[in-house]
Amino acid sequence: MKRSTSDRLYEEAKQYLPGGVNSPVRAFRSVNGAPIFFEKGKGSQVWDADGNQYTDFCCSWGPLILGHANDQVLSDVSEVMMNGTSFGAPSKYESELARLIVENHRFIEKIRFVNSGTEAAMSAIRLARGYTGKNKVVKFEGCYHGHVDSLMVKAGSGLATLGTSTSAGIPESYVKETIVLPLNNEDAVNEAIEKYGDDIACIAIEPIPANNGLLLQDKNFLQFLRKRCDETGILLFFDEVISGFRVSFEGAAGYYGIKPDMIAFGKIIGGGFPVGAYGASSKVMDHIAPDGPVYQAGTLSGNPVAMAAGIAQLKQCLKPGFYDALEAKTKRMVERVQAVADEKGWPFHMFHVGSIFWMSFSNKNKVQRSDEIDPNSSERFKVFFDDMLAQGMYVGPSSYEVGFVSYAHTEEELARAAEAMIHALDRAYAQ
Ligand SMILES: Cc1ncc(COP(=O)(O)O)c(C=O)c1O
Prior knowledge:
It contains 13 helices and 16 strands. The chain is an alpha/beta fold. β9, α7 and β10 form a beta-alpha-beta unit.
């Protein structure tokens, strides 16, 4: 496989960009070799700078639920942008996207658009604090909420301890209001509420944790969080940056039938453009400026181009049967791979929900906390990843990353991908 153009572009990028990239995982540090530079995408297919073609299961880390360069998205965006790209003043597209969401989502009455998932999570946390007048935030180890200072935290030692920061540049004082708990553990939540309950603004969780593998939680656990929040007045905050509009139009909240008090969105909501959002009941949202005292603003927030992309994408997601079809074809691919893995006796489990999948290189068929992931998996994953590339299949370059199937992936492509995965697993387990 020719990689010389990508290699040259990487050498150049390293001169001007830290690590040659604008987001760390793109640097391919968890796999062998240098990053691939992409040039073109259409539907399920992408082409790199050397002309290699791949079936894409990264889909820009989730936003591209319709695949690359969807015709409707492109045509609506082009039409809107011919009239200007941003005014720093309202345009009708903001309410159009907001209406589309509010009318089709039981748990959102008002929504505020921002420019990324990080911004959405950060602003939602501020709103939770401003609304409740409380300071502490509960988060779970293994859940990612963007690079927000107070949420870049890992657990201290022991249950219900305050967190310690996971990045240089974040003073410990910034994270001292964050309580980090293990996922799927009711006792830990009870203990934290007992200890700090009077000062907890919200419990933040990825209801489908998909940033450290796919740590599918028991529905009971999510229901338990709802119950404890109801009992204590703590807000339940679902970070649905990945799961929103992905596992159903109403995201994980709709999938599990659990009403959160606040939701953060990102990725799919922007149709491939940089959009995030947070939403809640009017009662909560009316605390945001200019109606309320919680300040939050954005120069390019709600710009017409990004809104048009979001509208064009979400309208297609609302077509009857959209999510069932996506889930069914993903399941067929996963089941084929799992059946062969079981037959061969490989210690392997492929988790999936909706059109999200994750390969765990261990035979545990339940992995619900990040410390249950076998750290040695990454060696097998490297072999798997290289063999997939050689077969024209692109998955995210890390064993901790999930894969995404888009509406554009055909049954034939997925059947081919399943055989490619089996081939790559065969190599990985031959080591
Ligand atoms: C659950 C979750 N929250 C927040 C974020 C941050 O979103 P962004 O990368 O758009 O800032 C991500 C990104 O992957 C995410 O998966």
